[in-house]
Amino acid sequence: MQTVLFHSTIFGPIKSRRLGVSLGVNLTPDDGKICSFDCLYCEAGFNAQGKGTTGFSPREEVARLLELKLRAMSEAGEPLDVITFSGNGEPTLHPEFEAVIQDTIALRDKYYPEAKVSVLSNATRADDSSVARALRLVDNNILKLDSAVTSTMRLLDRPGSKAYTSEKAIDNIKAFRGECVVQTMLTRGEHEGKIVDNTTPAELDALIEAYKIIEPREVMIYSLDRPSPEKSLQKVTREELEAFGRRVREEAGVSVQVV
Known about the structure:
By secondary structure, this protein is of the alpha/beta class. It is built from 7 helices and 11 strands.
């Protein structure tokens, strides 16, 4: 089984195809995975690999390690475009997520005031008041919406809650209208004998209608770039991504980044 990618709390910097020179922050275990989704394409592998033993990184330790890295990078004259919360699972599950974000912004302002703070989230906890406050503080609140059709979303993203629907995801995300970036992974394949495809005309139409409701600052459209735990998933061609991006711009009136 594919295993977790990140074996430390602070990782990188790396060159992100979406965000530039990015210093990563992993709030979830460095030897396991904790996520409210279990996406077929997750580069950190399936949740079945277990939660590991190290748990969530304590707030104070996150701040200490982040400051050590930012200070060293600054003294060495290294560039930095963004501090990105991602890692081995869903960052907003951290019990002190809001405080961690506040600490991070203060450290960013001290060492790299021009850098952005980004959070990659699946939006499952975006309706929690503390999480919502934190997400409104960051520069790039990037929220996942892979399908506006619940049956497809449940096949592709496999949320832990049986009650979680695409309608709930759209409700959670639209609270940030104008302030958020919606991130959509397009792919097709199968899993356990079921076809998984969010690229059909009906799926793309539904996504456009969802974007109209949400009114995000931007839509970020992408496909597979690394091996996925479900090996049957296919990378959607650049031409298909660009064609969908044009439709989103024209029909939803939203800025689009195809990456």
